[in-house]
Amino acid sequence: MEETIISQRKAKADALRALGDDPYANDFRVTHLAADLLAEHADKDAETLEAAAIAIALAGRVMAVRRMGKVVFLVVLDRSTEIQVNLFQNELPELDFQRLEHLDVGDIIGTGGVMMRTRKGELSVKARSFRILTKTLRPLPEKWHGLTDVAVRYRQRYVDLIVNEETRRTFQARSRIVSYIRRFFEDRDYLEVETPMLASLYGGAAARPFVTHNNALDMKLYLRIAPELNLKRLVVGGLHRVFELNKNFRNEGVSTRHNPEFTALEFYEAFANYEDLMNLTETLLSGLCVHMHGTAVIPYGEHTLSFEAPFRRLSVYQGLIEHAGIPEADVEDRDALLAAAARYEIPKTAQMPLGYLQMAVFEAAAEHLLIQPTFVTDFPLDVSPLSRKKDTNPRLVDRFELYVAGREIANAFSELNDPVDQYERFDSQVQNREKGDDEAHPMDEDFVRALEFGMPPTAGEGIGIDRLVMLMTNSPSIRDVLFFPLMRPEG
Known about the structure:
The chain has helices at residues 2-18, 34-40, 46-52, 94-99, 150-155, 157-163, 165-186, 228-236, 274-293, 316-324, 334-343, 354-365, 419-434, 445-452, 465-473, and strands at residues 56-68, 71-77, 82-88, 108-117, 123-134, 191-192, 198-199, 211-214, 219-223, 241-249, 261-270, 297-300, 303-306, 312-315, 374-380, 396-404, 407-414, 458-464. It is of the alpha+beta class.
């Protein structure tokens, strides 16, 4: 069936050529957008519009065609919105009206004309010229059912964007969110920077990297899993407030929460600690929420989320006590944690270092219950090789993760800037790798060298932009907020 339609539309393209038209022309110039026309003339009546007769040139995709004898009504979608275009045979040159015989829904057209109101009062364009600028060969999904197959929507995002207004709104919102974040940090004297995606050594997070090869240098390279270490090198160099909005890559599973390629905001501020960043994060997210929705209270799925400051603060130990039922005296007791891990059916716990075991139990027992914005604080040292130890308890670090709707949105800490301590922690991570932990941090001697030149007391944070966009657009899957999520090839 589709092959027949394609053949018929190719024939229409040839017919346009026979009329002297290029069915893929590029000489039409737009003077107005549909949304601007609808706003500018919203309060004008038919007589006023007819008297003004302001000439316009509009182009867009035909979303619907209705033919009534010598009148053809089109619904045309440009980059702003839809508008009706009315083509009257007695108002158009004969050639222009002939072109309508070769028009299909989905074609991109250009029209010149003036604004008018129909007898029913609808603000429309009265066409005085008409051309098909791009002849489409494949049909759009049927209007009333649209593009509903989720996998096809992700694979053919270009079609999804054409026919689903909600999809367009989501990605327009994403752009506004990123723009707001950029202005937020620039207004606070942060410098936006770019650091490499490819490196001979990866680091900055516990994750498996993607591996590639550079032919010219004949060397193994890694796609970065985080920009953290390079950004902290810049702080050492005297750039005391830096941020980066860019891609990270982690060789992990694909789900409604994970995509191996994802966008993150990462920022660092000298002479600040993790508590300062909690306050900054509250300001950022509550302001963003108001900017996007006019309120700090928004729906997300079955929940109503409040981004009004202050956010709740919950230590890892408190979470183990409240949600895993571990007595306060036993939060560092391995047997008690193993018993809790068994209740939650957590695998491979026997050889876990204590901190990893604590976090495994916390994540199983508490993470999904953290619906309202919650700063989880005071992480075990074992799982935080780049964080500064707490002055009051060296087994813990000055770190927080922000959870919203049961998922991690941000990760931050007061940075470790003691080069001797950092080397020892890297060395511990290397030993974990030798024991089979393929997500443990590798040794980075150059980063230790950078710290030896002196990094001021600093705090840093990473925020997952894709998950943040999910929250702000009430999207249930990360794939809904990525233009082109990773999927298996067709067939």
